[in-house]
Amino acid sequence: MSAPRAARPLPVDDAGRPLFELPDELAIDTDVARRVIAGFIRGQLQQAGFERCVLGLSGGIDSGLVAYLVAEAIGADNLLCVLMPYRTSSPASRGDAETIVADLGCRSELVEITPMVDGYFVEGAGGDRGAEASPLRRGNFMARMRMAVLYDRSVTFGGLVVGTGNKTESLIGYTTLFGDNACAFNPIGDLYKSQVRQMAAAMGVPRQVIAKAPSADLWPDQTDEGEGAFSYPLLDRVLYWRIDRRRSTDELVEMGFDRALVERVERLVATSEFKRQVPPVAKLGPRTAGVDYLYPRRRPGSARP
Amino acid sequence: MLRIALAQIAPRLGALDDNLARHHEILEEARAGGAGLVVFPELGLTGYQLQDLAAEVAMRLDDPRLASLAAATHGLSASVSFVEESGDHRLFIAAALIEDGEIRHVHRKVFLPTYGLFDERRFFAAGDVVRAVPSRLGVGVGIAICEDFWHLQTPQLLALDGAQILLNVSSSPGRDLAARNDVGLGTATSWRTLMRTYAQLTTSFVVFVNRVGVDESVTFWGGSEVIGPSGEPLFSAPFFDEGLFLVDVNLEDVRRERIALPLLRDERLELQARELGRIISERAGLATDSAADAGAEPRLDVAPMAPVPVAGARRLKGMKPRRPMIPPPMRAPGEDGAGGRGADEPIRLRSRHP
Fold it and tell me: Cβ of B213 and A43 within 8 Å?
């Protein structure tokens, strides 16, 4: 058998420093991942009877990577990227999204969600205290408005909505239920953030998109790591050893991880379990979807004619 | 010389008629290419992630669609895989050897993985037989399905029963893309280790045919292979690509290898059967478990905790007094009793394998 192949060097910034940190245990074979993901995207579309995809492009690394993956799998002509800024969204993000669209040569549309969001909170529909709604309420509402736009464009463009959430945010529940986690299928949902960065570098996602601090951009100067007080490489490692490699809390502490961090991460995972599952249906009849009526999502006759 | 055709296909889930038509095309293509043996992957006629669809695509062995495939094998041997429904309506994952117009042999998958991403035992019955079958190729053929090869006994039994060509037909989902794997896919690394080992230890040809394509979340990785009886890989198909691959093998290699390395000659079947018989008896509580804790009841290999004495406690009515247990010596050689259990400390449950 051949020896393990040497890891490809990480991309560096102008000063020669790596653009991101990639823990050894998280490094994946990006060539194999590209093959698997491209086949997965084509398979999902074929089984559903679709040829096109729609996704929300924020200018961040997750949706950026998915845009490159979809374009590689089915061609940029078949991809519609929808840019959906709110009035407080970072102009730099929009610029990055436009750079990606230009680089890929895919279709794009700009849909401002400001009137939809402000129409709800400012003009009364958000209830008595709508005007002073918390950033969390507003952020969740924005994510769900974007979902509504994508599913509408799914009809007008005739494409499936592609998910852009990564494994890290899914596991800790850093996602809006029926908002940014709503999709027909997700090609990167089993990649940790560090692996998303590794893939993005391999796919040629613009360097400034890879290097910038990850943010949900739901309010100005929000960053994931600032909000959660963690670093992604560390969080990814805790999740990887705890979940993928089934190490106990005590074993993680023995490996050198901080117990308080590990326990905090475990709480995040446990409290967000509901976000990763289909809602339960009260079992009443002889056969119940998801319980004892178990069919593959796609089978003969299920594809759109 | 035998030309083996590896049909590394991507079956369409639940689309039996489409897959059947594809099998017919491939049989003709393989015949035109001079193949003597054509091997299709596990559930090549139905797709893998069937769940409740299994009953809807199941075929009895007298199904005319199977007969039509068999009829296409005049002058050929082929292994095809499907959901078999028995007369008493059990569903099996099956692979048949069809030759010269007949179904010669049916293997029902014995080991049904029901862990991790697998849920086979929920939907299928497990086969009870591992048997080699003589073939028109002039040598015995042994068929196994995917997980069957994750149990040492399967390739061993097939080889001992006369197989010189071991077929493993699979729907193996690719996973673990860690960069440390030498082919970038943990599943492939494990399978390759197994197949080379089995070929060497059984001094037989191993033919592995794994499907490609996507069912639901999982991607099947292909990488079909032919391994010679010395453990040497003779052919490795690409990962993920569909294709019909023709591989020539010299069946005389089996004789050469078995003369030079008479491992099968030296197997000790009576010893194995005797020891297995003992282990089975011990597990069933019909014999004393030689490896159990002192004081363990028959069939239990761990001795239960001794009751903690409580002053004035009354024995419950009807309960028999427990035999006092004598703890085995805890002293390690060279230690002077340090770390040993104190005389009045309660005995705790101990694992057999610390």
Answer: yes
| A162 within domain boundaries | yes
How far is C-alpha A232 from the geometric centre of its chain's CA atoms? 14
CATH number at residue B57: 3.60.110.10
Q: Is residue A125 part of a domain?
A: yes
The pLDDT of residue A217: 78
Considering the domain architecture, whether residues B188 and B53 belong to the same structural domain is answered as: yes
Q: Is the pLDDT of residue B159 over 70?
A: yes
Question: Residue A56 belongs to a domain with what CATH number?
Answer: 3.40.50.620
Identify all chain B residues contacting A44, using CB atoms and an 8 Å cutoff.
214
Query: What are φ and ψ of residue A157, in 5° steps?
Result: -90, -20
The pLDDT score that the predictor gives to residue B309 is 63
Q: Return the number of CB contacts < 8 Å for A and B.
A: 77
Token couple for A166: 């990564």
The pLDDT of residue B285 is 85
| Distance separating alpha carbons of residues B263 and B197, to the nearest angstrom | 13
CB count within 10 Å of CB B257 equals 24
Q: Considering CB atoms only, which of A7, A32, A296 is closest to B49?
A: A296
Looking up tokens 């191993």, which residue turns up?
Answer: B206
Q: Residues B292, B214: one domain?
A: no
Query: What are the tens digits of pLDDT across the range B250-272?
Result: 999 999 999 999 999 999 999 99
Residue A92 pLDDT: 93
Collect all residues with Cβ–Cβ distance below 8 Å to A12 and sequence separation of at least 6.
Answer: A18, A19
pLDDT band at B311 (very low <50, low <70, confident <90, very high): low
Stretches in chain A below the pLDDT threshold 70: 1-8, 128
pTM of the entire structure?
0.87
Quick: pLDDT tens for B32-81.
Answer: 999 999 999 999 999 999 999 999 999 999 999 999 999 999 999 999 99
Å from A143 to nearest chain B CA? Answer: 25
Using a CB–CB cutoff of 8 Å, tell me whether A1 touches chain B: yes
- DSSP labels for B106-150? EEEP-----STT--HHHH-PPP----EEE-TTSSEEEEEEGGGGG
Tally of domains in chain A: 1
Q: Looking at the complex, does the CB of residue A7 fall below 8 Å from at least one CB of chain B?
A: yes
Flag whether B345 is in a domain: no
Q: Give the span between the Cα atoms of A136 and A118, in whole angstroms.
A: 15
Domain membership of residue B278 as a residue range: 271-296
Residue A256 lies in a domain: yes
The per-residue pLDDT for A17 is 84
Pair of tokens at residue A232: 């992604």
One domain, residues B282 and B152: no
Q: How many domains does chain B contain in total?
A: 2
Q: 3-state DSSP helix/strand/coil percent for chain A, to nearest 5?
A: 50, 10, 45
Residues B32 and B129 in one domain: yes
